[in-house]
Amino acid sequence: MKKILVYPHDILRTPAEPVHRVDQAIQELIDEMLETMYAASGVGLAANQVGELKRLVVMDVTPREQGPSPIVLVNPRITLAEGEDVCEEGCLSVPEYSARVKRAQRVQVCGYDRNEKEVCIEAEGLLARCIQHELDHLEGICFVDRLAPVKKALFRRKWTKLRPKDA
């Protein structure tokens, strides 16, 4: 299991690098990221969040009682975004805080799975939101960066009290 970095760690602000080969090290990273995400009761995790500057995300928005149904995307890119949706959003790197964030309602994302097979996923609802959130991480963007200026100022004030002391 990996340690999840907490905002405003520098690595969370750094764009990730493309993965050139899904070798044994990347396979192990995928497994560790999935283990970490599930242990933290998250629905998505980007490699940046565990200190790895790789364009790699794992997600699973399936209700837990249905069992795991992980999605692994290597070098993902959004190829289509439509509509608008504003919903409450949280982040494993910003524990104990959530805020309403505007995102596209529907997206298409293309990338590669852990077997280097090209995949394209059309999504809406929670999965679309999760995809956009995790791909933001790969660009060094955290969901709190998307807040309006007044909300961002309120977050900064609140975060000094909420931020884990060991982070």
Automatic annotation (TrEMBL):
GO biological process, alphabetically ordered: translation
Positions contributing to Fe cation binding: C91, H133, H137
Keywords for the protein's UniProt record, in alphabetical order: Hydrolase, Iron, Metal-binding, Protein biosynthesis
Entry note: cofactor: Binds 1 Fe(2+) ion.
InterPro entries: Peptide_deformylase, Peptide_deformylase_sf
SUPFAM superfamilies linked: Peptide deformylase
Keyword Hydrolase tagged: yes
Catalytic activity: N-terminal N-formyl-L-methionyl-[peptide] + H2O = N-terminal L-methionyl-[peptide] + formate
Family membership: Belongs to the polypeptide deformylase family.
PANTHER family according to UniProt: PEPTIDE DEFORMYLASE
Protein name: Peptide deformylase
Organism encoding this protein: Dissulfurirhabdus thermomarina
